[in-house]
Amino acid sequence: MTVDDDPLQIWRPYLQQLPAHHDPSSVNLADLENHLLNGVPRVLTRRNEIHVRVTDVYDDHRATKLHRDLESLQGFFTTESAIPDGLNIRILSIYSSASILPLKITPLFMALLLERYAVHPSFIQVLLSFGRNVHISEAGNSLLCVDERENDACES
User: Fold this and answer.
1) Domain that includes residue 112, residue range
2) 110 by DSSP, 3-state: which?
3) CorA-like transporter domain spans which residues (predicted)?
């Protein structure tokens, strides 16, 4: 079976782990699946264009790495720890030359990112604000999502 046969398969691991990290009663799974299948692919690159910067902030220093190809980003997701020892903040910045153009990350890597960092499903609304003309209400922080966990806070 390929992604063309079942386009939801790349998002399934993220959807399956949601209840472990987020209150299931706050997630409309049918709407989320619809957004992942129909909305999100529209705002992500259809080519193998990658432009993702990872910035790690520690107590005594900061490190940053730019991933510009599939192999580099694949290595980041598969060989590096999701949260290295001593890390205070990890910022993943996904580039787009303009907010009405697709983000330079493929659907597969976006699915891996959402799953790996247990991103709150409300972030999908922020993601969907790319790839179309900006409205005034979307230009502010109204789409800010802060997800708090036991000792951590994650801002999307």
Assistant:
1) 7-155
2) helix
3) 21-138
Those residues whose C-beta lies under 8 Å from the C-beta of residue 57, and which sit 6 or more positions away, are 87, 88, 89, 90, 91
Residue 103 identity (one-letter amino acid): L
The answer to whether residue 120 sits within a structural domain is: yes
Can you tell me the distance from the alpha carbon of 23 to that of 117, in angstroms, rounded to the nearest whole number? Answer: 16
Residue 65, beta-bridge partner list = 54
Residues 54 and 69: their CA atoms lie apart, in Å, by 14
> In this structure, is residue 34 part of a structural domain?
yes
pTM: 0.77
Would you tell me how many other CB atoms lie within 10 Å of the CB of residue 65?
A: 12
Position 85 in a domain: yes
**104, 68 contact by CB (below 8 A):** no
Residue 66 pLDDT: 95
Q: Which residue has the tokens 């290295």?
A: 84
Which amino acid is located at 27 in the chain? V
- Residue 49 structure tokens: 């264009």
Domain count, the chain: 1
Residue 123 lies in a domain: yes
Smallest CA-to-CA distance from 48 within 104, 110, 114 is with 104
